[in-house]
């Protein structure tokens, strides 16, 4: 019996930058409010976002050094911000094993969240 090898083409970087399917749908009003709530309740989240606005494509170590957020909690903060779609990594979650991830703020998504809240509050 001959063993057949199946090869798959390498993932392109643009595919890796697409929003993870585990991120809440940006059209879901509750998902947007949850994301804004996370930002409002944590000055550490806001420091991380501000740093990433000024330094897109930063690695976790660079973010820690630039923000002063404790290493022990930074991973949890990045995961929370990523789960709400506020930041994105250049490597998809299931492909991260052994890879360093660079993080960037998804500015259009954050703008959409702020606009959504403004519309809900002010009509």
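-> sequence recovered:
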């Amino acid at each position: 019996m001959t063993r057949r090898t199946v090869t798959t083409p390498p993932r392109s970087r643009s595919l890796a930058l697409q929003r993870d399917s585990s991120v809440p749908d940006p059209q879901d009003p509750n998902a947007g409010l949850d994301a804004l709530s996370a930002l409002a309740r944590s000055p550490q989240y806001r420091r991380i976002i501000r740093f990433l606005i000024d330094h897109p494509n930063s690695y976790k170590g660079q973010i820690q050094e630039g923000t002063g957020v404790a290493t022990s909690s930074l991973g949890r903060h990045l995961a929370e911000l990523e789960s709400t779609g506020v930041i994105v990594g250049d490597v998809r979650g299931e492909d991260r094993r052994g890879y360093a991830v660079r993080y960037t703020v998804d500015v259009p998504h954050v703008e959409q969240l702020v606009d959504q809240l403004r519309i809900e509050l002010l009509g």
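Residues 26-122 form a domain with the Arc Repressor Mutant, subunit A fold (CATH 1.10.10.10).
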